[in-house]
Amino acid sequence: MKHFLLIRHAETDMAGQFCGHSDPELNGRGYQQRAGVVDRLSEYAIQRIYTSDLRRARQTAEAIASHFGIGFEVRPGLREIHFGLWEGLSWSEIEACDPVLAKKWIEEYPNSTAPGGESIQDFGRRVRAESAFLFAAATECPIAVVAHAGFMRVLLTKFCGVLEEEAWKLTKEYASVVALDTNLIRKCAAEESAGAGIRNFEQEMIQRNARSTVRNG
Protein backbone atom coordinates (compact mmCIF):
# COMPACT_ATOMS: atom_id res chain seq x y z
CA MET A 1 0.00 0.00 0.00
CA LYS A 2 1.20 3.50 -0.77
CA HIS A 3 0.90 5.78 2.23
CA PHE A 4 2.49 9.01 1.02
CA LEU A 5 1.60 10.65 -2.30
CA LEU A 6 3.57 13.71 -3.39
CA ILE A 7 1.72 15.76 -6.00
CA ARG A 8 3.02 18.74 -7.92
CA HIS A 9 0.40 21.43 -8.52
CA ALA A 10 -1.08 21.88 -12.00
CA GLU A 11 0.05 24.51 -14.52
CA THR A 12 -0.33 28.31 -14.33
CA ASP A 13 0.38 31.14 -16.76
CA MET A 14 3.77 31.59 -15.08
CA ALA A 15 5.13 28.36 -16.57
CA GLY A 16 8.69 29.04 -17.77
CA GLN A 17 9.21 31.84 -15.24
CA PHE A 18 10.60 31.93 -11.72
CA CYS A 19 7.49 31.21 -9.66
CA GLY A 20 8.21 30.73 -5.98
CA HIS A 21 5.98 32.71 -3.64
CA SER A 22 4.13 34.34 -6.54
CA ASP A 23 0.48 33.34 -6.35
CA PRO A 24 -1.06 32.75 -9.80
CA GLU A 25 -4.18 30.68 -10.34
CA LEU A 26 -4.32 27.59 -12.51
CA ASN A 27 -4.74 28.24 -16.22
CA GLY A 28 -6.96 26.29 -18.63
CA ARG A 29 -4.36 23.62 -19.19
CA GLY A 30 -3.89 23.42 -15.43
CA TYR A 31 -7.56 22.65 -14.87
CA GLN A 32 -7.32 19.84 -17.42
CA GLN A 33 -4.25 18.47 -15.65
CA ARG A 34 -6.08 18.69 -12.33
CA ALA A 35 -8.86 16.46 -13.65
CA GLY A 36 -6.26 13.98 -14.85
CA VAL A 37 -4.47 13.79 -11.53
CA VAL A 38 -7.76 13.11 -9.74
CA ASP A 39 -8.32 10.14 -12.04
CA ARG A 40 -4.82 8.81 -11.34
CA LEU A 41 -5.35 9.08 -7.59
CA SER A 42 -8.64 7.17 -7.62
CA GLU A 43 -6.87 3.87 -6.89
CA TYR A 44 -5.57 5.18 -3.55
CA ALA A 45 -7.46 5.29 -0.24
CA ILE A 46 -6.40 8.82 0.71
CA GLN A 47 -7.55 9.85 4.17
CA ARG A 48 -5.74 13.17 4.67
CA ILE A 49 -4.64 15.92 2.30
CA TYR A 50 -2.05 18.60 2.99
CA THR A 51 -1.38 21.49 0.64
CA SER A 52 0.75 24.57 0.22
CA ASP A 53 -1.19 27.77 0.87
CA LEU A 54 -0.43 29.13 -2.62
CA ARG A 55 -3.43 29.16 -4.95
CA ARG A 56 -2.02 26.84 -7.60
CA ALA A 57 -1.56 24.14 -4.97
CA ARG A 58 -4.82 24.82 -3.13
CA GLN A 59 -6.82 24.71 -6.34
CA THR A 60 -5.24 21.37 -7.17
CA ALA A 61 -5.93 20.07 -3.66
CA GLU A 62 -9.56 21.22 -3.74
CA ALA A 63 -10.40 18.87 -6.62
CA ILE A 64 -8.66 15.94 -4.92
CA ALA A 65 -10.45 16.61 -1.64
CA SER A 66 -13.80 16.86 -3.39
CA HIS A 67 -13.25 13.53 -5.13
CA PHE A 68 -12.47 11.73 -1.87
CA GLY A 69 -15.10 13.59 0.16
CA ILE A 70 -12.62 14.91 2.72
CA GLY A 71 -11.16 18.27 3.65
CA PHE A 72 -7.55 19.43 3.41
CA GLU A 73 -5.09 21.18 5.69
CA VAL A 74 -3.20 24.23 4.43
CA ARG A 75 0.48 24.32 5.42
CA PRO A 76 2.56 27.36 4.37
CA GLY A 77 5.75 25.35 4.97
CA LEU A 78 5.02 23.43 1.76
CA ARG A 79 5.66 26.53 -0.36
CA GLU A 80 8.22 26.67 -3.15
CA ILE A 81 11.49 28.52 -2.49
CA HIS A 82 11.08 32.31 -2.67
CA PHE A 83 12.89 33.85 -5.66
CA GLY A 84 12.62 37.47 -4.47
CA LEU A 85 13.00 40.08 -7.20
CA TRP A 86 13.37 37.33 -9.79
CA GLU A 87 9.77 36.21 -9.34
CA GLY A 88 7.96 36.34 -12.68
CA LEU A 89 11.14 36.50 -14.77
CA SER A 90 12.62 33.91 -17.10
CA TRP A 91 16.32 33.07 -16.89
CA SER A 92 16.95 34.74 -20.24
CA GLU A 93 15.35 37.93 -18.91
CA ILE A 94 17.52 37.80 -15.79
CA GLU A 95 20.68 37.35 -17.88
CA ALA A 96 19.65 40.23 -20.14
CA CYS A 97 18.83 42.59 -17.25
CA ASP A 98 21.88 41.86 -15.13
CA PRO A 99 24.38 39.47 -16.73
CA VAL A 100 27.00 40.13 -14.04
CA LEU A 101 24.65 39.16 -11.21
CA ALA A 102 23.36 36.15 -13.16
CA LYS A 103 26.91 34.88 -13.70
CA LYS A 104 27.80 35.51 -10.04
CA TRP A 105 24.68 33.65 -8.88
CA ILE A 106 25.63 30.55 -10.89
CA GLU A 107 29.27 30.65 -9.77
CA GLU A 108 28.40 31.00 -6.07
CA TYR A 109 25.39 28.67 -5.95
CA PRO A 110 24.18 27.49 -3.47
CA ASN A 111 25.66 30.23 -1.31
CA SER A 112 24.09 32.89 -3.52
CA THR A 113 20.49 33.96 -3.16
CA ALA A 114 18.15 35.61 -5.65
CA PRO A 115 17.87 39.32 -4.75
CA GLY A 116 15.42 39.57 -1.88
CA GLY A 117 14.81 35.82 -1.98
CA GLU A 118 15.11 32.79 0.30
CA SER A 119 18.52 31.13 0.66
CA ILE A 120 18.91 27.45 -0.20
CA GLN A 121 20.00 26.88 3.40
CA ASP A 122 16.81 28.40 4.83
CA PHE A 123 14.76 26.51 2.27
CA GLY A 124 16.43 23.24 3.24
CA ARG A 125 15.66 23.81 6.91
CA ARG A 126 12.03 24.57 6.05
CA VAL A 127 11.69 21.41 3.96
CA ARG A 128 13.26 19.37 6.74
CA ALA A 129 10.85 20.65 9.38
CA GLU A 130 7.81 20.14 7.15
CA SER A 131 8.96 16.70 6.03
CA ALA A 132 9.29 15.52 9.64
CA PHE A 133 5.62 16.38 10.17
CA LEU A 134 4.54 14.66 6.95
CA PHE A 135 6.49 11.45 7.58
CA ALA A 136 4.90 11.18 11.03
CA ALA A 137 1.43 11.78 9.57
CA ALA A 138 2.00 9.14 6.88
CA THR A 139 2.67 6.46 9.49
CA GLU A 140 -0.88 6.96 10.76
CA CYS A 141 -2.88 6.85 7.52
CA PRO A 142 -2.51 7.33 3.74
CA ILE A 143 -1.88 10.99 2.91
CA ALA A 144 -1.61 13.16 -0.19
CA VAL A 145 0.60 16.25 -0.24
CA VAL A 146 0.15 18.95 -2.89
CA ALA A 147 3.33 20.98 -3.13
CA HIS A 148 5.88 22.38 -5.58
CA ALA A 149 8.72 20.95 -7.64
CA GLY A 150 11.54 22.42 -5.53
CA PHE A 151 10.05 21.18 -2.28
CA MET A 152 9.44 17.72 -3.71
CA ARG A 153 12.98 17.42 -5.10
CA VAL A 154 14.62 18.29 -1.78
CA LEU A 155 12.41 15.83 0.08
CA LEU A 156 13.11 13.04 -2.41
CA THR A 157 16.87 13.53 -2.58
CA LYS A 158 17.55 14.31 1.07
CA PHE A 159 15.17 11.89 2.75
CA CYS A 160 14.35 9.13 0.28
CA GLY A 161 17.69 8.45 -1.40
CA VAL A 162 16.51 9.49 -4.85
CA LEU A 163 19.28 10.69 -7.15
CA GLU A 164 19.11 14.32 -8.24
CA GLU A 165 18.58 13.49 -11.91
CA GLU A 166 15.78 11.04 -11.11
CA ALA A 167 14.10 13.55 -8.78
CA TRP A 168 14.05 16.07 -11.64
CA LYS A 169 12.46 13.52 -13.95
CA LEU A 170 9.82 12.58 -11.39
CA THR A 171 8.78 16.18 -10.72
CA LYS A 172 9.37 18.11 -13.94
CA GLU A 173 5.80 17.75 -15.22
CA TYR A 174 2.94 19.73 -13.74
CA ALA A 175 0.47 17.54 -11.80
CA SER A 176 3.07 14.78 -11.49
CA VAL A 177 2.49 12.18 -8.76
CA VAL A 178 5.22 10.41 -6.77
CA ALA A 179 4.13 7.52 -4.52
CA LEU A 180 6.26 6.46 -1.54
CA ASP A 181 5.64 3.06 0.03
CA THR A 182 4.99 2.10 3.62
CA ASN A 183 8.41 0.68 4.44
CA LEU A 184 10.21 3.75 3.16
CA ILE A 185 7.94 6.08 5.13
CA ARG A 186 8.51 4.17 8.35
CA LYS A 187 12.26 4.24 7.76
CA CYS A 188 12.27 7.99 7.07
CA ALA A 189 10.09 8.72 10.08
CA ALA A 190 12.37 6.68 12.34
CA GLU A 191 15.52 8.35 11.00
CA GLU A 192 14.08 11.82 11.42
CA SER A 193 13.03 11.13 14.98
CA ALA A 194 16.61 10.01 15.65
CA GLY A 195 18.00 13.21 14.20
CA ALA A 196 18.98 11.92 10.76
CA GLY A 197 17.58 13.12 7.44
CA ILE A 198 19.22 16.16 5.90
CA ARG A 199 21.59 17.09 8.72
CA ASN A 200 24.37 17.68 6.17
CA PHE A 201 22.11 19.39 3.62
CA GLU A 202 24.15 22.57 3.20
CA GLN A 203 27.52 20.83 2.91
CA GLU A 204 26.18 18.29 0.43
CA MET A 205 24.78 21.07 -1.75
CA ILE A 206 28.15 22.82 -1.79
CA GLN A 207 29.99 19.59 -2.69
CA ARG A 208 27.50 18.70 -5.43
CA ASN A 209 27.77 22.21 -6.91
CA ALA A 210 31.56 21.93 -6.92
CA ARG A 211 31.38 18.62 -8.79
CA SER A 212 28.91 20.11 -11.27
CA THR A 213 31.20 23.11 -11.86
CA VAL A 214 34.11 20.81 -12.66
CA ARG A 215 32.02 18.75 -15.10
CA ASN A 216 30.67 21.82 -16.86
CA GLY A 217 33.95 23.73 -16.88
| Rg from Cα | 17 Å
Biggest sheet, open or closed, and with what strands and sense?
Answer: 5 strands, mixed
Widest β-sheet, arrangement of strands: 3-2-4-1-5
User: Which residues sit in consecutive blocks of at least 5 with pLDDT less than 50?
Assistant: 197-203, 209-217
- Give the structural class: alpha/beta
Tell me the total number of β-strands.
5
Strand content: 5-15%
Shape: globular
Number of helices: 9
Q: Percentage of helical residues?
A: 40-55%
Defining key terms:
about 220 residues; alpha/beta; five-stranded mixed β-sheet; 9 helices; 5 strands; globular; disordered C terminus
Q: How would you explain this protein's 3D organization?
A:
- The chain has 217 residues and is an alpha/beta fold.
- The chain is 51% helix and 11% strand.
- The protein contains 9 helices and 5 strands, in the order βαβαβαααβααβαα.
- Strands 3-2-4-1-5 form a 5-stranded mixed sheet, with helices on both faces.
- Helix 3 packs across helix 4.
- The N and C termini lie far apart (45 Å).
- 36% of the residues are buried.
Layout of SSEs?
Blueprint: E1 2-8, H1 28-41, E2 48-51, H2 55-68, E3 73-74, H3 91-97, H4 99-108, H5 120-138, E4 143-147, H6 149-159, H7 164-171, E5 177-181, H8 182-193, H9 201-216
Parallel strand pairs: 1-4, 2-3, 2-4
Antiparallel strand pairs: 1-5
Helix pairs in contact: 1-2, 3-4, 5-8, 6-7
Brief rundown of the structure:
With 217 residues, the protein is an alpha/beta fold. It has 9 helices and 5 strands, in the order βαβαβαααβααβαα. Strands 3-2-4-1-5 form a 5-stranded mixed β-sheet, sandwiched between helices.
